[in-house]
Specification:
heterodimer; A: 38 residues; mainly alpha; B: four-stranded antiparallel beta sheet
Chain lengths: 38, 259
C-alpha cells in the first residue's frame, strides 16, 4: 500500500501544472551566438 | 542507490567554453592558410566518461573568420570578426578532445569553411562588394600592380607574395577591386631587386619577416591604386607552417616577380 500511495502521489504530482510564470530552462545546446548567425 | 549520472554539459557551461577555447586555439595554431577564426557558437557537446578524471569530449563549433591573417602575431582576442557586410566566412568544426585530470588535449579536428551567400549580402547591402575567386584575372592584376607599386617605392626589403588571402569586387557605383595578401621580406633591398630580382630569396626561417598588404584598385571611371603593406617584424614560426601556402601566383607582366 505504501508503494501504491507513493506511485499515486508521483502520478498526481506529474499532473500538477507548472506554477504561473514558470520558464522552462533553455535547452543545453546549441549555445549562445557570440557575434551573428550566418 | 547508485549516484545519479552528472547532468549533461550545456553548451554555455564554463567547462564547454574552456574546451572550445582549446579547440579554437588548436585550429588556428595548425592552420596554414587564410585567416584566424573566432568562436561564434558551441553547437553541441557530448561527453563520454572513460574512467576517473578521464573523458572523451566531442565538440561541434561554429566559427567566424577574423580580419587577422594566420601569420599575424596579433592575439586572437584582438582580432576583429569580419562583419556580415564585409562578406563573412563561417567555419564549421568537429573536434575530439580528451580531458585528463582537468586538462584538455585535442585528439582530432575536422573543419570546413564557407562564405555567406551572395544573395544574403545583396539583400541587406545591394552595393556591397562580394568575394571574388582568388584566380580572377582582375584580382591577380591588382595584386601584381599593388606589390610592384610597393616594391618600387619602398626603401626597405623587397617583398615577395606568399598568398592572396581574399579579394572582393564592387561593380557599382564605381568598379573597385579590393585585395588582401600575405608577403615576406627577401634578402634584397628594393634597389638590388631592380638589378636582379631572381637573386632575391625569402629569408631563412630563423630571420623570417612576414607582412600583410591591403590594396584597392579603382578601374572605372579613372584608375586609382591604393596600397598599404605592414611587416610584422621577425617571427619564429612553428616548423610545420609552410612558407608558401598555395601554388604560386604568376604575374602577367614578363620579368615581374613570380611566387
Amino acid at each position: 500500500s505504501v508503494a501504491k500511495s507513493a506511485v499515486a502521489q508521483v502520478a498526481q504530482h506529474d499532473k500538477v501544472p507548472h506554477p504561473v510564470g514558470f520558464v522552462p530552462p533553455p535547452p543545453p545546446c546549441p549555445g549562445k551566438v557570440r557575434h551573428f548567425k550566418i | 542507490v547508485p549516484a545519479a549520472p552528472p547532468a549533461p554539459l550545456g553548451c554555455d557551461d564554463s567547462e564547454s567554453e574552456a574546451a572550445a577555447e582549446v579547440g579554437v586555439s588548436y585550429i588556428n595554431g595548425h592552420s596554414h592558410h587564410g585567416y584566424k577564426f573566432a568562436l561564434n557558437r558551441i553547437k553541441n557537446i557530448r561527453v563520454l566518461p572513460q574512467g576517473l578524471n578521464n573523458d572523451i569530449i566531442f565538440l561541434e563549433l561554429d566559427l567566424l573568420e577574423t580580419t587577422c591573417h594566420i601569420l599575424s602575431p596579433t592575439p586572437l582576442a584582438n582580432c576583429t570578426v569580419r562583419s556580415f557586410t564585409d562578406h563573412a566566412v563561417e567555419g564549421d568544426c568537429d573536434i575530439k578532445l580528451q580531458k585528463v585530470d582537468g586538462q584538455f588535449f585535442v585528439l582530432a579536428s575536422k573543419c570546413h569553411s564557407h562564405a555567406d551567400s551572395s544573395e544574403d549580402i545583396i539583400q541587406l547591402c545591394p552595393d556591397c562588394p562580394l568575394l571574388a575567386t582568388l584566380n580572377n584575372t582582375e584580382v591577380l592584376a591588382t595584386v601584381t600592380a599593388a606589390l610592384n607599386d610597393h616594391n618600387s617605392k619602398t626603401a626597405d626589403a623587397y617583398l615577395r607574395l606568399l598568398e592572396i588571402g581574399r579579394a572582393r569586387i564592387q561593380y557599382h557605383p564605381v568598379h573597385v577591386v579590393s585585395v588582401e595578401f600575405a608577403v615576406a621580406a627577401t634578402n634584397c633591398s628594393a634597389a638590388e631587386a631592380k638589378a636582379d630580382v631572381e637573386a632575391c630569396q625569402l629569408l631563412p626561417s630563423d630571420q623570417s619577416n612576414f607582412g600583410f598588404c591591403t590594396a584597392s584598385m579603382v578601374t572605372k571611371p579613372l584608375q586609382d591604386l591604393k596600397v598599404d603593406c605592414q611587416l610584422y617584424g621577425h617571427q619564429v614560426l612553428t616548423p610545420d607552417v609552410p612558407f608558401l601556402s598555395r601554388p604560386g601566383v604568376t604575374y602577367s607582366q614578363p620579368g615581374q616577380d613570380t611566387a
